[in-house]
Design goal:
Two copies of one chain form a homodimer.
Chain A (H helix, E strand, L loop, with lengths): L2 E9 L3 E7 L5 E8 L6 H18 L2 E10 L3 E2 L4 E2 L14 H9 L3 E5 H12 L8 E6 L3 E7 L2 E2 L26 H5 L1 H13 L6 H4 L8 H9 L3 H25 L3 E5 L1 H6 L1 H14 L10 E3 L6 H18 L1
Parallel strand pairs in A: 1-4, 4-7, 8-11, 11-12
Antiparallel strand pairs in A: 1-2, 2-3, 5-6, 8-9, 9-10
Chain lengths: 320, 320
């Protein structure tokens, strides 16, 4: 008997991850390949879909639906990629959902990667058992997804652009003092670099051959060695993060805030513990005794698992 | 034939409004009386329920369900008033929903007044036809309700406590620089008063016999007369409001923000127009071309109409 599989696709700026799963959600097989900016999105999409079809064939099955998590912003309702800053420019205004639908001939759901990751964490990760959560990814940028009353909030909100310093640093979006402008991995590295260029002493100087190579990971490593400058940067970041997350928590009162993405995954409790302390000092709304902050449970798989869940939903929608 | 009515109750710090409606939502009759802090909540509740039963009898019907909008914070799931700052202290930890349920013998839904108002505006007011909106009430304090994907988000979030000035004015909640601490009616009056006490010239001095009597309305009136000091206060308030609402809009990308409550209703376009300008300068997320800001369509009735809608839902839940 031919088995029906769900396809999941995670399209990011650096790589594309894909997987097939059984109807119950069990992942059967997965693979990934780097995003090649020199290829057109059509070529990349062909490669992706051929890989998925091969996986299905190898396992004596066929694809019955697909879910896609893609770097945002995108138009959820029309299924179109808009202008993701971390993707090749050729992906702008790419009608991703309809192309996958017509190519595979199966129902498809597309959502931005942070929403997909929130869904993945809610169903299979650190968010299991909670009805209301906020997922934030801290990596090159900052994104977020919201689950309210067990439902994914499918709006195109951008949690990274909550204001944390009203007249602060200019953000890539054109506004000032956004969470992303002050707390992304890029921002953490830049902040450390600025201190170094201003002449401050630090172990960071010996950790890289050129200050341009500084990353959030270098800063976190130096914090673990109690480097004074790195600790200053870290405290500032934690403080800004607490302002932004504090506003989100005040507005939504989620049961839990889940942090994922490269920076949060790499730093772990080095980031989470001071953040919890600062949040509990800062947020005083009556309905919430303490702000619970957890690390993502699926590591780098949050988006892919969420994409598979979107595929399952696409199938359910098609059947009703 | 005996007709079935839905009862709606709006419990606020200064008055209690109530109404009965037909099954289709049409309001049949309404009344209100002042909140008397000297009476126990049991006495006040008895008066309310007797008034509702009289209304139903006069119209040859009986109550089949009730919805209540009450000043928050409250425990939605358990139906308990927690500790509303603007209500008599005797209402703290008052098990409102179960008492109304057992006294009337009908299903009851309770939600905080801002959530009820968001629901009322969504179904009958300025929010009709939108799937995603944020309702904010600006009066003595600031509260908010969220409709996402046509559903009321029943969390206990407190929109008034989004941070707009990280190290700013201490808020009643214990945090610093909350939207409510800087932009509520109370805050507007206090800000003007502080400038006057510091010796600034203004028409405001002639508009009240004592600066203690200054209200947000006095300040708005002086803005209409181009009073320089009042205009300064107004610009500051609009700027802080835009930071707070900007963060909410960035996070949720609602189709529309609806402003209600005494201050917003009294000021109207005097507040809304500069707020729109400032928001459109401040918010740059790609998914939203412009931030739409509308005045509440139901005036002081948003909560009561929302309470009636909650009553209808209580009936539907009981039947399924």
């Amino acid at each position: 008997m031919v088995q029906d599989f769900i396809a999941g696709i995670d399209i990011g700026g650096t790589k594309i991850a894909l997987a097939i799963a059984a109807a119950g959600g069990e992942v059967i097989e997965r693979t990934s390949f780097p995003m090649d900016a020199c290829r057109t999105p059509h070529e990349t999409l062909n490669q992706t879909l051929e890989a998925l079809e091969s996986l299905a064939e190898e396992h004596h099955g066929r694809l019955s639906a697909a879910g896609i998590g893609c770097a945002g912003p995108l138009d959820f309702e029309r299924g179109i990629v808009i202008s993701p800053p971390n993707m090749p420019r050729s992906w702008r205004h790419f009608p991703l959902r309809s192309l996958v639908e017509s190519r595979l001939g199966v129902p498809v759901l597309l959502d931005n990667d942070a929403n997909a990751a929130a869904l993945g964490e809610h169903l299979y990760g650190a968010g299991q058992g909670y009805t209301d959560l906020v997922y934030l990814t801290i990596s090159t940028g900052i994104g977020g997804g919201i689950i309210a009353g067990n439902n994914l909030v499918h709006r195109l909100g951008e949690a990274g652009h909550v204001t944390v310093q009203p007249d602060g640093m200019l953000c890539g979006c054109g506004a000032r003092g956004c969470l992303e402008a002050l707390c992304s991995g890029t921002a953490i590295a830049r902040r450390a670099r600025e201190y170094l260029l201003a002449g401050r002493q630090s172990k960071l100087r010996e950790m890289v051959s050129d200050v341009k190579q500084l990353t959030a990971k270098t800063v976190a490593d130096a914090v673990r060695e109690n480097d004074e400058l790195a600790c200053t940067v870290w405290r500032e970041i934690v403080s800004f993060l607490a302002i932004g997350i504090g506003s989100i928590v005040a507005l939504l009162a989620p049961q839990v805030v889940i942090l994922g993405g490269g920076v949060a995954a790499g730093a772990g409790e080095l980031l989470l513990q001071p953040l919890r302390d600062e949040l509990n000092q800062r947020v005083h709304i009556v309905s919430l005794q303490r702000v619970q902050v957890l690390q993502a449970g699926l590591g780098t798989d949050s988006v892919l698992r969420g994409a598979l869940a979107l595929g399952t939903r696409a199938l359910q929608h098609a059947r009703t």
